[in-house]
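To start, one record:
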Amino acid sequence: MRETSSVAALVVFFAGLTSQARAGQAARGCVPTGVFTDRTGLRVTLEPAVHAGGLIATAGPGGDFEWANGTLAAKGSRWCSCGAGGSCQSSRGLCRALEMAFFLGGATVRTATATVENDCSGIASWSDGGSAWWKPDFGISAVHVVTMTHLDVGFTNSTRGVCDAYFDHHFSAAVETANELRRRKSVAGFRWTTFPWLLQEFLDGASGCATRKRQPQELAEVREAIEKDDIIWHANALNSFLELYDADLFTFSIGLKDALNSEFGKKHGTLCGKQTDVPGMSIGAVPVLARTGVKAMHVGYNGACKLPEALPPIFRWRHEATGLELVVMVEPGYGLLVRVGPLALAFYYVGDNGLPPSADEVEKYWAELQQRFPFATLRASSLDDFTSEVISSHLSTLDVVTQVADMRSFKGNESRENRETCLRAKGRQPLSRVPGFR
């Protein structure tokens, strides 16, 4: 890491806690102390100071502010806010937002947001909206980097428009990124994880999702990327509202990966799936997934849906009626970071139907990760690889959850009820209505 003279040291103290805290006695840990680093390696040091008025911060040589004021939110959540450059993870207590305002000549020159735990420990990151800083984590020895684009058919464009975008641009962009990093002999790696259905539709066009079928050169390019493991897939066919599946449909959808694995001689998606921008998942999915050999699922919650406070960020979800289990990872958002002991799963997640990252963007992200985890080995990886390592070395350390009444946070209830009525009329039982499976 490098240290620049522009911000050699920031000395920050904030008021608004308790009289004891303002006196520097209890809750002293709430002062955001420590050395933080940003994505470029710039180091910022925060140290507590005591001032009679409770408001003081001084900048080092070349600093752009004179003093700062901080306010700790009155209410907290068990889930820490991610923040730019941070990670969503479960707190030991209740996380509270810390809002910082920096002043120069009486005017606000920047604001910053961090989170602290209820016991005033554990600040992991803070951001001023444009830059982000975090404490380097020396306890992580290996980071599995998974790169994905969030597929949302019909959201940013019509169904056909979205498929055209992926097939005309996204797949070729992923191929180009992988090839360019290889040409550069870059330390950064790249594997683009996508959905089995989307990839199969690119290859055969059986559903007619796109305007046209692919030309031989396009197919050859993607097939070569698959052979090189530059393009891979996970377990589930698509992002789905699983509560509207019955067991047979769900099993069929999980089986789509098997056709690709058979054709290309791969084993992708045999262990872990990914649900993104969804309101959760019913426990009825556990025995279906387990019987197909899937061992884990990452669930990234839609922003309008409340992730249950009781859930740890990664746990073993046990279906008591069958005794079958699934390792479940949950995050408020599409996917950022999951920690298990010395292991981390880091998502480079592109938003709704966005292009895969360029070679420059991948190298920038890898440099950022290396700053955050200085002792870690980074690898372009897959959900399966991370799951395999968790199960082989850390499964016994995970909490076992047997019943979560509110893991599903439904939205669009009227539409859901109508579709469930249609399923029942056809003699099919939605997973969300199977007795004992909720």
The mean pLDDT is 76. The chain is about 25% helix and 25% strand. The first strand starts at residue 10 and ends at 13.
